Model the fold of this input.
Amino acid sequence: MDDTLYYDVFEKNLRDELVRVCTMENELTGKLLRSDDIDEKWKELAPDYMADAMKVITDYPTVSVAWAGYMGMAIAKWWDQDWAVFGAWPYVKLLGKHGFDDMDEHIVRDILGIKLETPESEKIEELMRKCATTAIGFIRHENIEPQSIRAFYIYARAVKVMYEIGASVELKRLGYKWQPLV
Done:
């Protein structure tokens, strides 16, 4: 199997599993909600996110993946609020007072507008943790040599899927639903 096909299959399988997990948690309805604007924003944000995430992957692998889900939630919120304004905002607007370390809390509290340590914020935290743990399990199941090129690309695909999942969960929270185009 060539590498591109290998990465594509990994990404599809992980996406399908995370949609299933989120559906079981009643946070999705069996489909990934998306927007071209939100998907395109990932391409802009990914290099900065990856640079930060790679610094913590060894000590905090779940965090390095989960924060991408929070980032997807923030971008979906901005997309819903006023994409003409927020669509131009840079990656640094997603960081907390302590940079990458408290990105999750900053997004939940300051972007999503949810008080910390409430049932709603704890539900989001649990979902992001569950999805990130699943993603890490998928990565480990591949038995790839650590710090190899293949490991980097598999990790990058997993983080991208987490971003998509976060965006989809937030779109559902905002009342969007999947409808086929007729």
